[in-house]
Write a structure and sequence with these properties.
The chain is of the alpha/beta class. The protein has a single domain, classed as TIM Barrel (Alpha-Beta Barrel), CATH 3.20.20.210. It has 15 helices and 10 strands. It has helices spanning 3-11, 27-37, 42-45, 114-118, 130-141, 155-162, 164-172, 176-198, 220-226, 228-241, 259-265, 280-287, 302-305, 308-322, 342-354; strands spanning 55-56, 83-84, 90-92, 103-105, 146-149, 203-207, 246-250, 269-271, 292-297, 328-332.
Length: 357
């Protein structure tokens, strides 16, 4: 199998030949990597090019290349290093001790009328996906799986604009502002998902954090009223174009109660399956015949505080739990932070490379 065939067969639970690897590093960890590898590309350093082989697509472009002056939507000054999303949500960097983390600010937190929200300078997307199709075709010629990423699909984008507390109150009171905002973000997400499917992406990464460490973020009733039908629209738009496209859904935290709903709307892969927040073995046992998984290697426990042997043991245990059909891309559940020894990253990659189911 080439990398694309292997990845798709793994996620479709029809067998696989090698265990792919996947992780992301904060700047401090990137410095550790540089020191350890001497700058060699990781596929070469580990002698495992097939394990790292995949291609991510860009995204749809905006019709206007000139963003609005987002700072005028904020009552106070922002650090010069602040960046803004395409929706104007502020990510404030630049303070000592915050490292790579940002403080979030919300441009519509103080809006008190639907008319004000409607008058906001919403981004306009150019629906032309020609450039995405070219990127995807080139990757497929190279035998690589193609991923389109649109994480923070609805909920996180919406509260990033409005403020989570304000949006929760809007939803609880059936305020028209919540309907408008969530519908607006959903319409954009439908456009983006359709474009990835038209570009022949193999996997579309969607998601919104709907879990906390030990409980769900909102009631199932609220989720089913406000978010589930909108996610269903986005997934249906992609699968109407390409029925076999795989939908990879991300939510940190405890999301076990949401799994039947996610399956119902067409999610194929659940990420990150945090072992500190979910019983990953139980979930894989109960849903492994209908759902595939990505993650399961704890970034609050095993990766920062385990030994290399712990990392190897947990990696192999989880792959063995999934079985020879596959259904699991085992990987760290989140960005690797400064506490993680580089030796544990090496142990993870080598465990995947050496695993034989």
């Amino acid at each position: 199998m080439n990398a694309r065939e292997n990845m798709l067969s793994l996620y479709r639970r029809t067998g696989y030949e090698f265990a792919p690897v996947e992780f992301s590093l904060c700047p401090a960890m990137q410095a550790k990597m540089q020191a350890a590898t001497g700058g060699a590309p990781l596929p070469d350093y580990f002698g495992y090019p097939e394990g790292f082989a995949r291609r991510g697509l860009g995204g749809l472009r905006l019709k206007s290349a000139s963003p609005p002056d987002w700072r005028r939507y904020y009552p106070g000054p922002l650090h010069p290093d602040t960046s803004f999303t395409v929706y104007g949500a502020a990510r404030e960097f630049g303070y000592e001790g915050t490292y790579h983390l940002a403080r979030l600010h919300h441009p519509l937190a103080h809006v008190d009328s639907l008319e004000q929200m409607q008058a906001y300078p919403w981004p306009e997307w150019d629906p032309d996906s020609t450039h995405l199709r070219a990127e995807s075709a080139a990757a497929h010629r190279d035998g690589l799986p193609v991923f389109g990423s649109m994480a923070c699909s609805i909920w996180e984008t919406a509260w990033g604009i409005r403020d989570m507390t304000m949006l929760m109150m809007d939803m609880a009171s059936d305020d028209p502002k919540a309907v408008f905002l969530l519908d607006k973000i959903t319409e954009d997400a439908v456009l983006r998902a359709r474009a990835y499917a038209e570009a022949d992406a193999d996997v579309i990464i969607m998601g919104d954090d709907i879990g906390m460490q030990d409980r769900i973020m909102m009631s199932l009733a609220m989720y089913r009223e406000w978010l589930k039908p909108r996610l269903a629209r986005v997934i249906a738009a992609a699968k109407a174009v390409k029925p076999e496209v795989l939908v990879h859904y991300h939510s940190c935290g405890h999301v076990t109660p949401f799994i039947p709903d996610l399956l119902e709307v067409g999610v194929d892969i659940l990420n990150p399956m945090q072992p500190e927040a979910m019983d990953v073995v139980q979930v894989m046992s109960e849903y492994g015949g209908r759902l595939s998984f990505n993650g399961t290697l704890g970034t609050q426990t095993t990766m920062p505080f385990g030994t290399p042997e712990d990392v190897r043991r947990v990696t192999w245990r989880n792959l063995e739990q999934a079985g020879p059909r596959g259904g699991l891309l085992v990987c760290p559940t989140h960005l690797l932070e400064p506490e993680v020894p580089w030796e544990n990253v090496e142990a993870y990659v080598r465990a995947c490379k050496e695993f034989r189911g």
